[in-house]
Design goal:
Strand order of the largest sheet: 1-2
Number of helices: 8
Distance between the termini: 65 Å
Structural class: mainly alpha
Helix content: 40-55%
Largest sheet: 2 strands, antiparallel
Strand content: under 5%
Oligomer: single chain
Order of helices and strands: HHHHHEEHHH
């Protein structure tokens, strides 16, 4: 038997709705529905936590060990609960099961984390000759090259020229 089957049998035997069982267990009605189906919202096998099993067992007036004893051998549960997220931004996430972030502390936390860390360098791939020529054709005029033909440059000279022009274009875009 699966956890969801046990919940469904219990509810049916007592004429309880999902909503009523959700209130008894302290779980949401949506989670009870997923539990009975045995899959999460992504269609993957639902693996309830030991905390969830305790809540289900309490709502059924049973011991969690008895509930576990009713489960099939191929039923899975997770022992560890994920730690609650207490802070997140584009660069950082902080989890804690025993702490919470004080009101108005986010700017201080971000500033502190930034001062204690350094960015990880991101390696950029070198563009191909065709990509460089395409970018140059879209972004500069022949006159900017003094009337010469950058298509005839060797690969290293072309790349160096591209990097110089790319920097100028990027600087100009930042100024605007």
């Amino acid at each position: 038997m699966k956890v969801g089957d046990a919940v469904k049998q219990f509810r049916d035997a007592r004429g309880l709705s999902m909503d009523a069982f959700a209130k008894l267990s302290g779980l949401s009605k949506a989670y009870i529905s997923l539990l009975e189906k045995g899959v999460n919202n992504q269609g993957e096998k639902l693996v309830p936590s030991i905390t969830t099993l305790r809540k289900v067992a309490n709502a059924m007036g049973a011991d969690v060990n008895d509930l576990i004893g009713m489960l099939d051998e191929d039923s899975y549960i997770t022992i560890e609960e994920p730690m609650p997220l207490i802070y997140a931004d584009d660069d950082f996430e902080i989890y804690s099961s025993s702490r919470r972030l004080q009101d108005n502390a986010e700017p201080f936390v971000r500033k502190t984390l930034l001062s204690m860390t350094e960015p990880i360098p991101v390696e950029e791939s070198t563009p191909s000759r065709a990509e460089i020529l395409s970018w140059l054709a879209e972004n500069i005029r022949t006159a900017a090259f003094g009337g010469g033909n950058y298509e005839e440059m060797d690969d290293q000279s072309l790349y160096d020229y591209y990097m110089d022009i790319r920097k100028e274009v990027d600087d100009e875009e930042r100024r605007n």
